[in-house]
Structures
1.
Amino acid sequence: MEEARELELIVRQDREDLLSVLQMRFGVPEADVEAKIASIHQPDELQRLILAACNAPVWSVFAEELRAGEGAFKLTGERFNPVSQTAFDQKGDS
């Protein structure tokens, strides 16, 4: 029982951390994004999304990762370079 409570505390903190990173990088997340994040119960998935939020140069890259679900696991390449020149070349991403 204590283990389940501890896991829920970790998940709750990871959700809060993810939302904070998203707000710092891209502005306040929309309600549907918050709802999607609230529905995630796996710490591994939340931690992967925290890394994606920290490293995605534009919102669309993070959004794609959020839609990928828990099956995704590699965050590599120029796509996850937060200072990528292509990030500044893309229009319509915020």
Note: The longest helix spans residues 2-26.
2.
Amino acid sequence: MKTIKNMTLIDDDDIFVFLTKKAIESTSLVELIRVFGNGLDAINFLKEHREDLNALPEIILLDLSMPIMDGWQFLDQFTTLAPKIDKKITIYICSSSISPSDVELAKKNNLVSDYIIKPITKEKLIDLLKNIIEEI
């Protein structure tokens, strides 16, 4: 069975990260999960490893509200970085914000595949992972 080699969670909510990792690990659909507590650490990792395709994630779950660099700032930085990366990285915003303006802004960004409102169910997470696996 095909799997996702690398997945990245960019979120500062320890409980969400813990529960999401446990749910993903129980599926055996993802080989490696990297976690960053803010967008700056994540964007620096992507910049440092942009030529190492094995280190780059196939999927990113991105929170919007974080310290240091929030999700919107991460997306701004990623927009300039993405053309320099020779790998498709699928980004899902995973936020507790139900603000229509946040949802609309996310839908306008062609790098964002979907906007998922927390909490995310295990079933929704499994469906999301299976859809990514079908694409790769």
Note: The beta strands are 4-10, 30-36, 59-62, 90-95, 112-117.
3.
Amino acid sequence: MNKLWGHFSTITKHKIQVTALCFRCGLYKQGLLHDLSKYSPVEFLSGVKYFQGNRSPIDKEKEVKGYSLGWLHHKGRNKHHWEYWLDNGPNGIKPLDMPENYVIEMFCDRVVASRIYQKENYRDDSALIYYLNGRNHVLIHPNTDKLIMHLLTYLSEHGLDDTVKYIKRRSFAIE
């Protein structure tokens, strides 16, 4: 019962906070729809089973089983994940350039996830550090990578309030 309540509380807190941050960035519909699939049976039940409280249950499920059905379901339904934007063709799997609004939702998702899992240890560079730790192992479009890196770096240097203002202007000066 503790895992059930812990997982439900964590995903609901995450959903509410990402929704609020998306709203601040002007992404109202995306904020409302963000991560609703986490309440579907395949995602929710695996989340409860592998819940730990300090990191994603998806990571634990992958350690135990070598894969996560919950994750496969989630990434296939949520456009704010770069994995959603992979397609196969005659030359193999290739990443597609994510639309800007989904990169901004990905930014919101990463910031809130860092806050929730790191609790009092969260800093403005936490999401950037997390992204950099896995960056060499992802198949992400170069433009998408450049924009998410830009936003996470901007956050680490200017804080969340200034980054939200910057996002709302939507005039990214990416070099």
Note: The mean pLDDT is 94.
4.
Amino acid sequence: MSMFQQGAIPYLIVLGVIIAITLLFRLRAALIRQEMNPVIQIGNGQTIGRREEQDDYFSTATSSHGTIAVLADGISGLANGRLASTLAVTTFIREFTKLDNPKHMSLFFSRAASLANSEILQALRGSRGGTTLVAGVIVEDKLYWGAVGDSIITVFRNGEFIPINQKDIYESVLEARFLSGEITKDEALEHPQKKQLINYLGYENFQNIEIGREPFPLEKGDKVILCSDGVYDTLTEMELEQILFQNIAAHDAADQIIEAVESKQKANQDNATILILEKGW
């Protein structure tokens, strides 16, 4: 061994130690990040039902800030439902990837909704179209959310559902009129337009998206559920509870829910989509 090689040995040892320490720090940082943002189990299921076209669209994404799930139900009664739902979801996912601070979550929801509404209207060029949308973001042990239309986001905890958003349908207006004494209870319950949407994306008079004032605190075992009306109009809460209460993976639960929807064999079965997010603890 030459003198040059002998002299290089201490430097190689030091270099090796530095590399080892660097790797250990990176591993420790990765473990800390994993503890702060554990892996989110994501399950999804969808059926076209008896419709000619699948107007539901959904997507999920994970960044350093958290995990987002977005579901949009294109309005079947209007043309271009698929176009509207696809644009809405892709806009939300795109804007989420740009988010630089989870503290700006409320601004993210309002900005994404405004952009989605504008992009849908521009794409429609005067044609009719629109979509509902629900979006949930899990950051550590908190759920941030936004919703417009009649798709729902709910949390399944200890065998029961905790509703998160309000549905933007005429039924809410009728309920307010009943409480103020303007109409009777029967008039409110039997109104033929009670399920009609009063706010959605792709609407020139779009008002705003409902946003949680404070993030919803999640607990161990919680399942965050996003679904279109094709699910909750077909299955009862009890039927959903029986599936979700099982100790099975999120994707298996989603598959079982869609199978249960299809087994009803409803003549007018709407598109049905469900997303399940379950945080690892």
Note: The longest helix spans residues 3-36.
